[in-house]
Amino acid sequence: MPEKTADQRVHAAWRSRACAASFACGASVFAFGAGIAMPLSLNAVWLSALPCVPLCALAAARCVVLSRRIQAGGGMRKWRAALLAAVMLASCAFLTASLVSLAGYTLLEQARAVSCALLTVGFLLAAAAPRMQGVSRLCFAVRFVLPAAMLLCGLAFLPQRDSPGLYPLLGPGAGPVLAGTAAMLSCAAPALMLLLPLTSSRVSDAPTPPIMLFAGRAAAGAALGTALLLLYALPGGYEAMRARSVWGERLTFPLSGGAQQPLIRMLMLLLQLFALQLGAVSLLCAAEDALCLALPALRKHRAGLLLCAAALAALMLLLTHAGYTAALIAAPLIALPAALTLLPALSPRGAGKEACG
Amino acid sequence: MCDDAIVLCPLLERNLEVLRARLGAPGNADVLIRRFRSGAFASALVAVDGMVNSVLADENILKPCMDLPHSAGADVPPDRRVGYLMENAVSVLPMKMKDNIDEILADVLSGQSALLCEGCATACVMDTRGFEKRTIGRPESEKVVLGPHESFSESIRTNITLIRRIVQREELTTEFVTAGGAMKTRCALLYLRGTADETLLSRIRSRIEGCSYDFPLTTGDVERLIERHPLSLIPECVRTERPDRAASFLAEGQIVVLTDGSPDVIGAPATVYHLLHTPDDATLRWQYGTFLRLIRLIGVLIHLLLPGVFLSILRFHPQLLSPMLLTSVYETGSRVPIPVYLEALLMTLAFDLITEAGLRAPGALGSALGIVSGLILGQSAVSADIVSPLLLIVVAASGLGGFCVPNYELSIGLKIAQLALMTCGAFGGLYAMGLCAAALLCQLCAMRSVGSPLTAPVAPHRPGNRDILLRLPIKYQKARAFFAGKNR
Asked: What is the mean pLDDT of chain B?
C-alpha cells in the first residue's frame, strides 16, 4: 500500500480515538454536572462545569506529550498501565451508572434495577467486542450529527418566559459552587485514554498528529457537555430543580413551555442515552487496552475485556445495592489516580524517566 | 521420469497409459483418447466428450494432422514434433505448451484438448471448449428502468468478454487462479493495472488460493473465502449480476472476482454504501439518484426499526401515541388472544414465509402466490382476531421497506437484525433497542473488507470519491474510491 495511505490510516485512527475521548469527556461533564451542581441550579450548574473545558484540553495535550515520551522510552510501565485501567474502569462505571439511572427513571420505570444494570453491561460488552476501533469510528461518524441534534433538541426546552432565581455565586453560595467545581474536575479523566497507543501493531510506531488535534477535540466534547448543562439549567427555576432528588430525574431535561411534545422529549432522551453509551463503551475498551498493557497474557481470547466487563458488572451490582448516588459521591476520587498517571508529563524531566516496563 | 508421473515423458504410449489411469479410462465413458498418424510419427488427442466442440476438434486438429503426407516431419527432432504440428497443421486459438500432467488434466477436464506426439515430452493444450451454456439473459435481482439489461451467465469466459466489451482499456488485466483442493474451481481476478491496489490484490489472491475444500465452489463460497468476519450480519463484498456494474467497480479501483459456473461476480473491497447503491443511481440525473437513495435509506430504516419501535411504544412508552390512536390500538389489541410480541413475531415470520415461497415458486406463479396468500391470510387473520390491523400495517410497511434493500445478502442480514431489535424493543423498550442498535453499529464500524474499513470514507475519513449517500453532480465525481491505488 502506498506510504501516503498508511499515514492517512494512522491519522484517521488517532482522530477517531480523539473523538471517542471527546464523547466520553462530554458525557462525564454532563452526567456529573447534572448530579452534583444540579441542586444549586441555573447559573451555578454550568459555571461549575466551565473549568472542565480547558482542563480536558490540557489533560489531552499532556496525554499526547506523555504518550510520545513513553513511545520514545520503549513502552509504558506496568504500574502506570494498571492505574490507567483502574481510572478508565471507574469512569466507565460512573457513566454506566448515569446510563442506568437515567433509563431507570425514564424509559424503564417498571424494570428492576439489577436487570437494567446487567442488561446495560451486557450490551456494553457486545459493543466493546470489536475493540476500540468500532466505537471510536462510530464516535467519529456521529461527531457532528449527535451534538447538533442534542443542541437542537435542547433548544426546544428553552422557556418562553424568563426563569426566576439566580443562585448566589459569591457570599454564601461560593462554598458549594467551588466544592462542585472541584469535584467536577474528575470529568477530564476520560481524556487519559489518549495515553494508550493504537492497538494495531502496524501503526503503533507511526508519529502521532499535532497535539492541538487532541486538545481541541477534548475541549469540544467538554464544551458540549457544558452547553447542555446551560440549556438544561435555563428552563427550570431554582425551586423546581431543587425538588429533583433522584439522580436519574436530574439528568432529564426539565419541562418547559416550548417542549410539550413527548416525541422531542423522547428523542432528547435517546440522544442523551446514546452519548452516555458511547462514552461508557469507549472507556470500557480503553480499560481493556490498559489492562492488556499491564498484563499482556490477558490479550489471549479477549480475557482482558471479559475481566473488565466482569469488574464493571460487579461495580454496577454494588452500586445498585448502595444506590446510584454513591457513584456521584465516589466519582471525584477518580481525579486522584488520574493525576498520578499524568504526573511525569507535568515535569520537564519526565522524558528520560519513562523507561520501558 | 515416466515412473513418477508428474511430467510427460517422450514415450507416447506411456503418457497415454498414465492419462488413462488418472482419468479411469476405458471405464470412464466420457474420456476420449484418439490415436492417429500425423505425417511421419504417431500422435494422440485427449479430450472429454461433451465438453469439447467436436466439430472444431475434427476440422481444425484431427483432419489437418491426418492429412499431412506420410513423410512430413520425418526430419523434425522428436522433442519438437508438437511444435511442428502447431505450426503446420493445427489451426486453433489459443494454444499452450505444457508438460505437467496435473495441469494438462485440469485443462482437459475443463473442456480443452491435449495433443501429444511420439518422442515428445510436451503436450499442446488447445481451447476447444464447446459445452452447452445459457445465453445472456436479463438481470433478475438487479432490475433497472433505464440502462443496460444484460446479465452474466454461468460461463466465466462469456462473463469476462461482457466486461471487456465495456472496459476497453489496455490496463484491464485478467488473472486466473484456482481455488479448492481436489475439485478445483477456476476463478478470474479482473482489475485495472495501476488503479487497483496491489496489496489488496495479493490479499484476495492468497485468500482464494489458500482454500483446500474438496467441493465445487460457487461465488458465495469464494466470497466466504475472501471475508474475515464470519459472524457478521453484513456482507463484506458486493455481488452483482450486471456487467455494467462490474465495470464500474473496476473503474473505481475494486477487484472483480469471477467464478466459473456462477452467474454473478464479486467486487472487493466494498463499503457499506456500495451495498445500498443501484445501477439506477448512476444512469439517472444526480437529483433523481439522490432522491432514490434517500427513499431507499428511509425504507431500510423503516424495515429495521419500525416493528421494534411499535412494540416498544405499545409496551413501555404509550405516552408517545395520541390518546385517540392509543385507544384504538388497545381496543383492537384486546381482541387478540396472544401477546403482542408473539403476534408481531408470527406476522413477521409469515411475511418472510410468503416472500420465500414467492421466490421459490415457478415463474408467474410466484407473484400470484404472494398476492393471494398476502391478501387472504392477512384479511382472514384480522377477521379472526388473530392479529390486530395496526400490527398488520406495521409489518407490511416494514416488509415493504425491506424490498428497498438492493443487495439480497444485506436484506437477509437486516431481517435478522430486525428480529433482534424487535425482541429488544418488546422486552426492554426503546432503551434496549438503543443499546442493541449502538452495539450493532459498533460491530459495523469495526468491520473491514479485505483490510479496508467497511464504513470508510465516512468513518474513518479517507480522501477520495464522495459518492456515499448522496449522488453528486458528475463534475464532483472525478476522484476514484479511497481504496484505489491512484486517487485520480
From this structure: 89
